[in-house]
Amino acid sequence: MKTTDDIEKRTLTITRTFDVPRALAWDAWTQPEHIAKWWGPKGMKVSIRKHDFREGGEWEYSMPMPNGQEFMSFGKYSRIVKPELIETSANFVPMTEGVTIVATFADKGDKTDFVFKVIHPTEAYCKQQEDMGFFNGWGSVFEGLSKYLLTLV
Fold first, then answer.
1. What's the CA angle centered on 99, arms 26 and 106, to 5 degrees?
2. DSSP class of 106
3. Which long-range contacts (CB under 8 A, 24 or more apart) does 57-65 make?
4. Is 145 within 8 Å of 38 (Cβ atoms)?
5. CA–CA separation, 48 vs 32, rounded Å?
6. Which tens digits make up the pLDDT trace of 35-93?
7. Hey, where are the domains in the chain?
8. What is the rounded CA–CA span in Å between residue 43 and residue 24?
9. Is-contact 93 99, C-beta < 8 A?
10. Sign of CA dihedral 12, 53, 17, 136
């Protein structure tokens, strides 16, 4: 896909404040044993197939669907600045492909300010993803993450 120039018009953003220190939120995003507990929609089991957390490393997660098919998510890390930034390509087959995720973590006292951006190749694709329920879908994932984080303190 050809990308358009105005990145803001191709980006969907969700912000949250997690009630845990940044180090704990970072660990939940970067360690497979944590990711398997919160990644994906509520009630879905996540299997970590690959998790090479380094720049150039690849990740791959799967979730069995009720109809017997598998929902796959995978990508390649392009930039990691510990403990504040993760940038990765991402594909969520069969719903979303060819996007870039940028997740940032900032200290806010004993809490974490979190910003999640998904950059799409075109404005039209961005709008399509928003209309398909981007904010509800990822919002529910981050609600699950927030609850999971509280079990760790």
1. 25
2. E
3. 59/88, 61/35
4. yes
5. 7
6. 999 998 777 889 999 999 999 999 999 988 888 888 899 999 999 999 999 999 999 98
7. 7-151
8. 23
9. no
10. positive
Structure tokens at 150: 């509280």
- Reported as half-sphere exposure (CB side, CA atoms, 13 A), residue 98 has a value of 10
CATH architecture of 7-151: 2-Layer Sandwich (3.30)
Decide the pairing of beta strands 58-64 and 47-51: antiparallel
In the block, residue with structure tokens 């197939």: 49
What's the farthest any 2 CA atoms get from each other in the chain?
A: 44
State the Cα–Cα distance between residues 103 and 119, nearest whole angstrom. Answer: 11
Q: Which pTM value belongs to this model?
A: 0.91
Positive or negative: CA dihedral 8, 9, 11, 13: positive
Query: Looking at the chain, which runs of residues are DSSP E strands?
Result: 11-18, 47-51, 58-64, 70-81, 85-93, 96-108, 111-119
